[in-house]
Amino acid sequence: MNNAIEIRGLVKNYPAFKLGPLDLTVPRGAIYGLIGPNGAGKTTAIDLIFGMGKTDGGEIRVLGLNHQRAEVQIKQRAAYVSPDLNFMVWGKVGKAIRFVRGFYPNWDDAYCATLMKAFGLSDTDKIATLSFGAKMKLSLLLALARRPEILILDEPTTGLDPVSKQQVFAELLKAVEDGERTVLISSHSLSDIERFADHVGMIKNGKLLLEGRMDEVVDRFRMAEFFSENKTPFHNRDGFIVLKRNENRWHALVDQKTSGQDWLQTRGAENISLTRLTLEDLFVALVKEEEVK
Amino acid sequence: MAPANKKLILGPISPAAPGTLYQQIVDGLKREVSEGRLKPGASLPSFRQLAEDLLVSVITVKRAYEELEREGIIYRRQGLGTFVADLGHDRSREAKLNVAQELFREAAQEAAEAGLKQSEILELAQKIIKGK
Amino acid sequence: MNRIIFNHLKRWGWLWIIINVANGCLVGAMVGNESMSKASAVTMFSFVMWAGAMQLNFDLQRGLSRVQTTLPVTTRQIGAAWWIVSVALPAILLMATAATGMLLRSLHTHKEFPWENFALTAFTSTIYLGTMFFSFVGLIPVFPQNLAGWLRYSFSMICMFGMIFVPPNFSTTEGISVMLVGVVLTLAGWFRAEHFVVQRATFRPGIQLGKRTPGQYRAPSGFGGMPYLIQVLFLQFTRFAVIFTTMMLLLQLFQGKTLTFSPKQMFEAAFPAFSSFGVFFIFMTLLAPMVLQLRQLRTLPISASALAIFLVLLPVAPVLVVGIAYQVASGNFSMHSDFMPFPTNCLTFATTLALSVPFIVWRGLRVESLVVSMFLMMAPQLGPVLFRSLVIPHSVITLIALACIVLAIEITRRLLKSSSHAYRPPPVNMNAWSGWSNFSGGR
């Protein structure tokens, strides 16, 4: 079992939205960044892993287990973190921790105390009065202290200040330190994802746009600037997306595998300059392209 | 088993610095080796450990280690860890020389394109070295 | 100001229509020619609750005050608009439908229009609306932190719910004094409206209770998991029951009865907690906290079936337990209630509670699911009124009740598995009071 999570042909239909067929592969021991514009289906996909909603097709395997048949087993081994989790009804931080702690034999009290201190969460703090970021940290603490094999985080950094954000990622890196644990994180803060995640999957409109090792994905694409006197203009094609055009001067996103420098030259492009992209640039370019279509 | 190395301190790794993060790590480690702060045979932290210290992804450090291994600056022993190669110091110096050569070549080309004569380029180089 | 009022009408018109139709029918059928009894006071209160400030409270949960205070109107105008939509307009509507109901009834029975009863009904609904609005001003969205806050909070709670225990009446001193208090509070609401707007628009829980106790990073120990949850809920429910029973005993003392603390008296005192209105509170205190954290519960290692059984039995169990306790204790006394024999009553209430669980799980703590639950819980009260002649054997009722409970569990289980609706985050509780659900276990 080299993959922590395998999603194959997952389909979920809503009146106004269709997820999938979606394939995702999260390798074991990795931090996997799931990115996509709002409404792409990230939360839906994550919810389905935890059995919140019924799939309309396809399969989800977590640690080799079928997500429907081994629901409780999976939940024993995988933890979920999201700002949507509501612990307010527990009143105090300590009570919420005590409740969750009872479910997990692996619960690490010492680590829990360390995290409480690191996150500034006292057991007597009232949850209703915690800031948004502190609530998020509580959710993260409850997930980390159970030492899960898989940690699934849905938008864990929304509303966190930069210091807290770095703290969160530092804990995540610590969590995967032994190479056995896996983190799946959906987030909009792409510079963080680029820095901390090993793998990346980008979804849009319920479909996977690209997936792979972070460095390979980012390296594959370039921002190209070139001039062309060619009468037949460049059109979008697989691996080539026109971003801007001013007369004979072009800006395009190119996939070096299919539409690199050589291809551009054969099409009569001159003065080609290729620039590296950040994940964020890549994201914006790919998402915009979809919208143009 | 080799004793765990005391915390490895590299120069700051930042997306704002030139080069990708993994190149910065490669350069940082090379500098440690060539300047003698990391002696041959010294063990390096595991890449997961270093990733945690530097707050970068595991894959970034892994890639940097792979590159250093390719260049012969470090070597890996299955189950024991990663160590600085005996020739690491020389290799790292060699690698540095290569980089310097490459940069000089590029600089010379740029200067030539700007219309500087050979003597003028040398003069410029001297000025920069002295100014430093 | 007019725009705020029209906007409210547009969004809440549907609920006003439902409530007013039900009001017309009920007032016509039940209260029409009798004087206001305790039962009809409770019924009236339940209607008024949904027609009035409760709507505003739902809006506040969604952050209405922040939006409106940025509009180009004065705070005074917003406050006035809130009072008009929560008190004045629904009062007029309820009066109109009550009058229609009574008129139809008197035409049908060829009797004179019951002017006195109409006046009483209209008056009662109006002061209920007004008191409710006034009470919401004092119910700040988090638990009070000091004595002054506690007193203010308790006063508001007593104003809000105290009225149902002493029905207004033109002929008794008690009835008249309650009316006078109602009038004063209704008018006070109008003058407090502006304060209400400001208070909710600037409310931040963190600022309200900035006191933090740093340095205690003790990792909790002791048993946790579901047993802990059950313990917390049990203690909370017991606390509620004790407070409630004490309040009722004090009320009896106030009414000139002597306290004997006999089982009969205790049961009588606790009884309103098991009438339709009280059952709704059981529902809110036990089930609402679970629904609010449903997403979290679903990510814990509990199977959907176990969770479904837990969710349904949670509100049902206490009602059944009290019913059985009564059965055991009632060997030497029989209790006459306003509604129907007590054990049967408990059984039917338990059934309706069970049946409303799937709604709540399906729709979350939204207005529509709460209204449906409310109506479901009133059904056992209406049954005997509408079908007086029908006598169903006790065993049949028991059988139907058990079948309903099992059915509710099965539907809940399916919903937990198939619907993703239940897990959508509940509205952020921004600036509104939401019963016990936001501070249960908070002490």
Structural overview:
The complex is a heterotrimer of chains A (293), B (132) and C (443). Chain A is α/β, with parallel strands linked by helices. Chain A folds into two domains: 3-205, P-loop containing nucleotide triphosphate hydrolases (Rossmann fold), CATH 3.40.50.300; 217-292, Alpha-Beta Plaits (2-Layer Sandwich). Chain A has helices at 42-49, 71-77, 93-101, 109-119, 132-144, 162-175, 190-196, 214-220, 256-259, 261-266, 279-292; strands at residues 3-14, 17-27, 31-35, 57-62, 65-66, 78-81, 150-154, 182-186, 199-204, 207-213, 221-228, 240-246, 249-255, 269-275. Chain A has a six-stranded mixed sheet, sandwiched between helices. A four-stranded antiparallel sheet of chain A has the order 2-1-4-5, with helices on one face. The radius of gyration of chain A is 22 Å and the shape is elongated. Chain A starts with a strand and ends with a helix. Chain B is mostly helical. Chain B folds into two domains: 21-88, Orthogonal Bundle (Arc Repressor Mutant, subunit A); 90-131. Chain B is 57% helix and 8% strand. Chain B has a three-stranded antiparallel sheet. The longest helix of chain B is centred in the last third of the chain and has 26 residues, at 88-113. Chain B is elongated, with a radius of gyration of 18 Å. Chain C is mostly helical and 443 residues long. Chain C has 17 helices and no strands. Chain C has helices at 2-31, 38-51, 53-61, 64-69, 75-109, 115-138, 147-162, 173-201, 205-208, 225-254, 263-270, 276-292, 294-299, 304-329, 342-363, 367-386, 394-418. In chain C, helix 6 (115-138) runs antiparallel to helix 7 and helix 12 (276-292) packs parallel to helix 15 (342-363). The radius of gyration of chain C is 22 Å and the shape is globular. The interface between A and B is medium-sized, with 23 and 15 residues.
* Number of spatially distinct domains of chain A: 2
**DSSP E strands of chain C, number:** 0
Structural class of chain A: alpha/beta
CATH architecture tag of the largest domain in chain A: 3-Layer(aba) Sandwich
